[in-house]
Design brief:
- The chain has 113 residues and is α/β, with parallel strands linked by helices.
- It has one domain: 3-Layer(aba) Sandwich (Rossmann fold).
- A three-stranded parallel β-sheet has the order 1-2-3, with helices on one face.
- The radius of gyration is 14 Å and the shape is globular.
- It starts with a helix and ends in a 12-residue tail after the last strand.
């Protein structure tokens, strides 16, 4: 991990601990509010049954929204505390997702990249 990435990782972990808005999981979503959150203009095709990759989007906000809409969600984030928020949010809704700690600049871990 390069110096800048390590700095950002440490900073995001600290921000989650401090209670920053972007590190607070959304625990009151409905399918309708989830749809509005990820597509407030109503132009996105349905995501049910599709794979959705959330890059640098830990925090428990986007992953549960997409999962509530029926997507198979994978989150890549370098901050483990952000990923922990995703795990918390997904579990809250009884949903699952693939949570990967890593740098979004390197997606070689995925076979079909």
């Amino acid at each position: 991990m390069d110096e800048l990435t390590q700095f950002n990782q440490e900073r995001w972990n600290a921000l989650v601990e401090a209670g920053i808005q972007y590190g607070q999981p959304l625990l009151d979503l409905t399918p309708d509010s989830a749809r509005t959150m990820v597509d407030d203009c109503g132009v996105m095709a349905p995501v049910g049954g599709k794979d959705v990759l959330c890059l640098a989007s830990g925090g428990g906000q986007q992953s549960p929204a997409f999962a509530l809409l029926g997507a198979r969600v994978t989150v890549v984030d370098f901050a483990e505390k952000q990923l922990a928020q995703d795990a918390l949010a997904l579990a809250h809704y009884g949903l699952t997702g693939r949570l990967e700690q890593g740098d979004m600049r390197d997606l070689s871990r995925f076979a079909d990249n």
